[in-house]
Amino acid sequence: MDTPRAQSGLPTSSLILDINGIAQTVEVHPWTTLLDLLRSELELTGTKKGCDHGQCGACTVLIDGERINSCLKLAVTLDGAEITTIEGLGTPGDMHPLQRAFVEHDAFQCGYCTPGQICSAVGLINEGHAQGRDEIRELMSGNLCRCGAYTNIADAIEEVLSAQAGTPQREAAE
Amino acid sequence: MLNQSKTVGLPVSRIDGPLKVTGQARYAAEHFGPGMLYGHVVSATIATGRIRAIHTAAAEHFPGVVKIYTHDNRPKTAYRDSRWKDAVALPGHPFRPLENDRVLFDGQPVAFVVAESPEAARDAAGLVQIEYLSEEPHTDIVAQRHESYEPPVPRMKQFMPPPPRGDAEAAFAAAAHRVSADYVLSGEHHNPMELFASTVLLGTDGALTIHDKTQGSQNSCDYICGVFSLDPGKVVVKNSFVGGAFGQALRPKHQLFFAVMASLDLNRSMKVEMTRQDMFYLTWRPSCIQTVSLAADAEGHLQAVMHHAVHATSRHEDYQENVANWSGLAYKCENVKISYEIAKLDLATPGDMRAPGAATGMTALEAAMDELAYAAGIDPLELRIRNFVHRDQNQDKAITSKALHACYREGAARFGWAERSAAPRSMREGDDLVGWGMAGGIWEAMMSKGEAKVRLSVDGSVTVSAAASDIGTGTYTILGQLAAEAFDCPVDAVSVEIGASDLPKTGVEGGSWTAATTGSAVQAAAKAVIKTLLTHAQSMENSPLKEAKVQQVEIAEGRLVLESNHQIGVSMVDILEAAGLEAIEEHAKVGPDMLTMMRYASYSHSAVFVEVKVDEELGIVRVTRVVSAIGAGRILNPKTARSQILGGIVMGIGMALHEEGMIDHRTGRIMNHNLAEYHVPAHADIRDIEVIFVEEDDDMASPIGVKGLGEIGIVGVAAAVSNAVFHATGKRIRTLPITVDKILQSEAV
Amino acid sequence: MKPFSYTRAESVRDAVAALMANPQAQLLAGGTNLIDLIKYDVAEPEAVIDINRLPLKEIVELPDGGLRIGALVSNSAVAYDPRVKQHFPLLSSAILAGASPQLRNAATTGGNLLQRTRCYYFYDPASPCNKRDPGSGCPAIGGLNRIHAILGASDACIAVHPSDMCVALAALDATVEVEGPDGAREIGFADFHRLPGDGPDRDNTLRRGEIVTGVRLEANHFAGHHTYLKLRDRLSYAFALVSVAAAVQVADGRFVEVRVALGGVAHKPWRDPLAEAEFAGAPAGEETFIRLADRLLAGAEGRGHNDFKIPLAHRAIVRALRQAVSGHPQDQTVKAIQ
């Protein structure tokens, strides 16, 4: 790949990642985080950088189905992993139930923390530890929202959680 | 036209929502172009002094580094201060990055590294070594309060205290009930979730397209054209999506300067994204110390109000906000003395943060009102009702509308305030002390000058455009609603074009004036389109609208019709086709009505009720319930409006309980410059919040009857929390935030 | 960030050899702390050795009813493991009190043990710090020390260990299993982390080249009587100001055994087994709780901003003992303190 990364003379490794269902070969430095890989190299900017230190949750993606802060994951460690970002959950014309619920409940304002909130909520539902509002609040606390949409986010997740109760959960990468 | 409300006033979901929830909305750092370079800022690690030397050799040799800028090699920029002053600049000298060897504040940008990749720029920046000659910093507002001064050049006339009324000191001394105390607010940091960023895309002809995190694309555009002497016709600044700002992005930030500087110098496209740490060295809500003295007669009627405020500013600029004047207009009182000063600290220039001034000053006033209620033995809500005032006594003007009684009544009813037992520590639940507190809020309802364009096409689609910004406020949606209402079409038939400097002139998005201003401009432009339609309709043969006046027509179901009889009219398509037009486009300008402004003042109001539970033994506070009743004129969209208020409340809870920039005053450096140690409320901190919009008709505040919602939600919240903590614990904590250490270390009264 | 080389260890032996080959090498597991530190230029390894593919991902039941938790088992996996929840609910609770679900999904058992302090000055490379840069000084003394130590500190360092999980492991008398150039050995939990003394750059007693391979828990009688009580500045996603892990065994209204470990107060999870032993046989009631708290905090020393931690810790100990004795451990979801 004729990228600045490869040209710089600094060490790189090649790896294969399955990103939103598509296997891709990428070239990374040892220190390239998954977040930087997604946002700069792959131009998948739906995943956000809010702090770059695991302190805000805006960069949350699903790695092999688990919600993870992508800013603290070195891409090079993920060879062979399946990664689902917000772009892989739905599109404006075909939204994931959580995406629809977020719109309906106005569960965001500026929208910057939103992809992380939604990916985190997908993880939360997959984990199956949240039954009610107290659990939603506690288990979504790794996603800060400075616009203060928390109550609406809880409403949106609660709606999807109760709709899915008893029915098989939609796969993250679907 | 707007009374029928098929769209306006309904809880329409955000029209930009699907883009945001699917990750398709692109923010300032999320644009790409060929040959992009990346920049990283090196920040000073002293608060005041000089740079003795900068060693860049190691960084320059780092693979991928293109150039390193310091004050020794910065390209030439404008000389005069006036060229550096943006539209909302302050009295004083605007900061010029890399101007000289002087360090004015911790975190000041002192070098700028450009490289072929963002990682290379960042990693090389870590290799830049700087030697400083450090001087003794002064960063503590409490220690510097005696060095304060009245701003020699007011930022705004209305920020200066009104002349004293009556004799506040004498009335205070003679009154039956008196309270007087100091209230201290720590410096706060906006911390919008999006990092400040600018992407400069270089066009083939030297034109620049710049994606900037800003609350005003035209302000950023004018600024860089001034600083770099650029042809404004060759620069477009875009801010289609802004990941929160809360006032921090009103003024252009140094990443914009650096991105443009390097792009011009190197003739390459550039991207510069700040770190979270960098964002603690920008615009912040100034630390402030206030003395509020209130006195009342035996029945609780205010006899004297005195409010003295001193807040921080920087060495180079005189930041000012209206902290104390609210005390002269919130309640009826004949004896008022307000004073306001600022003090220079070795910190970055503070700036507007959500409800600047009011959030700080009303917190002190409303805490003092609670203290007075207890001193006088009167219910805190009742005390406020007894001192209700219908006039702005500061300016001696009538008020356009004030539904504050309704806020009190409806908020109290929903909260259950009547069930409150007055004595502190008298309500309990298990190990928790329960506290109920309330406070009032005010914010000025402002409208500024603004323009908009509306285009009606032959296919029935409508396009609205203005250089407004949507910083999460819902601007896209309400503008779409207003146009849909005017043309009786669905909201999704309207495309809203905002967030670019080449659109019709609009001020920065701040002060809660966007809805009133741009909304009114859209309405005016829509009316102009209808007028033009009518003119064309009347030149049609046998037009049924021949005699109609513009006030008598409206659009209904695709036809221009008589308001009084929808049977009489002409289809819009027929009108356009008859006129041989593809579309009609009209442009409108609006501004505040000067005659109204001379006679009236206009404010939004709130009453906020808070329940806290405080573990008696451990002093841990939880806000368990909030009811906020808002009087803010017409609500265009109750869904997005409610979100604005929720956001204000959450930030107010942060102000009350969490937020504090911690400065080591020995070095003048902010030490908790991250989101792990600068706490903003998390999900778990926020429980039930109820928002009530009370009925308030106001056709004077703005042509569309709105007063703005961005600020009023936060005003009073911190006071209500602190009053609730007092009610729960009997402890008056006058230094925010109210953290567990303060609760444990203070005595119940 | 300083560039580093990357290698993937295929075996524990590989990892040990790589550490021995380069004193500037560091092991990478979940990365939630190391990558954070590298980005702040606090950690500057020349070589990063990825141990994520080592076979240390199992939780194994031991014949005596205990568990062996592999060093690479994620914090989430430990917290939600049915065996941990049943037999070591204190550990599960402490883990769920820490960080966020995303961080717990990534963070590992071994990594949690090796977390570094959240001291502001440690995290700021422009500040002196004896832990980061030995001999440079400790600005937290006389500076911003609201979050700092009240027990076991030294004139060189007043930082605290930030882990929640480790406080529970201290109370449970866990054993840390390590492997190094000289083979495998075990370290009692109390001896794993160290006090700062005059060498605060060392957080623990691992020797050069050693890698944590697992944590072992012995069966105990505390499953019904324990709690993890964490007090912090916001109700979730914040480090502890003070935390208490309490585990007790009560018979006939008296303590058979009482264990109290404190977090957020010292350079290591704080325990005082001698003091605990004095209370075996004491009535499991309020008066004993207070005397035990007095005893545990007898040597506590504030540095100004953190003075409040002494009364806070005292009350937290009493409260935690009340919770543990009554069999009502703190629920980490419900924010009311029980």
UniProtKB/TrEMBL annotation, chain A:
Keywords: Iron, Metal-binding, Oxidoreductase. The keyword Metal-binding applies. InterPro entries: 2Fe-2S-bd (IPR002888), 2Fe-2S-bd_dom_sf (IPR036884), 2Fe-2S_ferredoxin-like_sf (IPR036010), 2Fe-2S_ferredoxin-type (IPR001041), 2Fe2S_fd_BS (IPR006058), Aldehyde_Oxdr_Iron-Sulfur (IPR052914), Beta-grasp_dom_sf (IPR012675). This is 2Fe-2S iron-sulfur cluster-binding protein. CDD domains: fer2. PROSITE patterns: 2FE2S_FER_1, 2FE2S_FER_2. Residues 13-89 form the 2Fe-2S ferredoxin-type domain. The keyword Nucleotide-binding does not apply.
Automatic annotation (TrEMBL), chain B:
Pfam families: Ald_Xan_dh_C, MoCoBD_1, MoCoBD_2. It comes from the Bacteria. InterPro entries: Ald_Oxase/Xan_DH_a/b, Ald_Oxase/Xan_DH_a/b_sf, Ald_Oxase/xanthine_DH-like, AldOxase/xan_DH_MoCoBD1, AldOxase/xan_DH_MoCoBD2, AldOxase/xan_DH_Mopterin-bd_sf. Residues 22-137 form the Aldehyde oxidase/xanthine dehydrogenase a/b hammerhead domain. Coiled coil: none annotated. This is Xanthine dehydrogenase family protein molybdopterin-binding subunit.
UniProtKB/TrEMBL annotation, chain C:
Pfam families: CO_deh_flav_C, FAD_binding_5. The keyword Iron does not apply. It comes from the Bacteria. SMART domains: CO_deh_flav_C (SM01092). InterPro entries: CO_DH_flav_C (IPR005107), CO_DH_flav_C_dom_sf (IPR036683), Diverse_Substr_Oxidored (IPR051312), FAD-bd_PCMH (IPR016166), FAD-bd_PCMH-like_sf (IPR036318), FAD-bd_PCMH_sub1 (IPR016167), FAD-bd_PCMH_sub2 (IPR016169), Mopterin_DH_FAD-bd (IPR002346). Gene3D superfamilies: 3.30.465.10, CO dehydrogenase flavoprotein, C-terminal domain, Uridine Diphospho-n-acetylenolpyruvylglucosamine Reductase, domain 2. Keywords: FAD, Flavoprotein. The keyword Transport does not apply. Residues 1-222 form the FAD-binding PCMH-type domain. Coiled coil: none annotated. PANTHER family: OXIDOREDUCTASE (PTHR42659:SF1), XANTHINE DEHYDROGENASE SUBUNIT C-RELATED (PTHR42659). This is Xanthine dehydrogenase family protein subunit M. It comes from Shinella curvata.
